[in-house]
Each structure stands twice: as C-alpha cells, then as structure tokens.
Amino acid sequence: MKLEWDQIIHVYFPVTVAIFAQVAFLLLPINLRTWRTDLLNAWTYSGIQMFVAGMLFAVIPRIFSVFYLSDAASIVVISSVFLASWWRIVRSIPLEATFPVTPEPVEMPVVSFDSFYNPERLRQLGELSGDDSYTIQRQRALREMLARRRVDRGSGDSEEE
C-alpha cells in the first residue's frame, strides 16, 4: 500500500501543485480598458501566463526529475492556459468599449437680439465721438472689411473697392 501512495504522490502531486499555482496566477487582477490602448498589455499578459505554464508543467518537473507531462500534453496544457488567459482578457475588455463614444448633444444657448435695439444701447452708440481718430480708423476698417465681403448678387463674387 505504501508503494501505491508514494507513486500517487510522486505522479500527481507536482501536477496538482502546478494546476493550483497556474489557477492562482490566472486569477490575479488585470486592468485593461480598451483594445486600442491595451492590446500590447493583453498580449504581454497572455505571454506571461504561457511562460508560467511552461515553467510549471514542462521545465520544473523535468529539472527535478518528477513526473512530467508528455510533449503533446504540455502543448495542450499551454494552449489551454493561452485560451483561458484570452478568455479572461476578452471578458475584462468589452467589445463596445473599443468604439468611439458619442457624447450627448450639448444644447447651444439661444442667441437673443431682444436687447440689440434697446434705447440705452442706442443712446450709447449715439454718444460715440466722431472726432476721435481711433474711432474713425475703426469705422473705416469696418467699412473696408464689409466692402470686401459684400457679394455681388449676379456673379457670387466679392467686390473690391
């Protein structure tokens, strides 16, 4: 009976420890938000998972000469770890997060010209001095700008004065 338990421990214990270690490593938290910005992080996470699986299921058992999986079984286990890591990545990054988010339309303020012709404003405009050289220059520049932008109704071209 002792021989059987020794064989069972020798055969299954390293693989069981490796499985628990790999599951614990797969359960470590990851913080990935979008596919566009975190694709390199996702591949790195998956690559590290495969590296750890290779160490736990292939390299370490062979170094210590304990029971190790065959090459085909090692490939299946490492592929399974790869698929599990990508399943975890896909679950953590929703596909709809990769598309641009369209913001809610912002209501533009309503422009009101109700106060444009109020008596107080017209009085202030009427009190502007026509003798001030700065005011005269501004009025001249405004007239020239308006003349350049004026559209000829027949041709659609701007007139130059």
Structure description:
- With 161 residues, the chain is mostly helical.
- The chain has 5 helices and no strands.
- The protein has helices spanning 2-26, 35-63, 71-92, 119-126, 133-149.
- Helix 1 (2-26) runs antiparallel to helix 2.
- The longest helix is centred in the first third of the chain and has 29 residues, at 35-63.
- The chain starts with a helix and ends in a 12-residue tail after the last helix.
The end-to-end span amounts to 113 Å
Largest sheet: none
Low-pLDDT runs: none
Broad shape = rod-shaped
Give a count of the beta strands, DSSP E runs of length 2 or more.
0
- pLDDT averaged over residues: 79
* Helix-strand makeup class: mainly alpha
- In DSSP terms (H or I, runs of 4 or more residues), the helix count works out at 5
SSE order, one letter for each helix or strand? HHHHH
Computed CA radius of gyration, to the nearest angstrom: 39 Å
* Secondary structure: helix percent: 55-70%
Residue fraction in strands:
under 5%
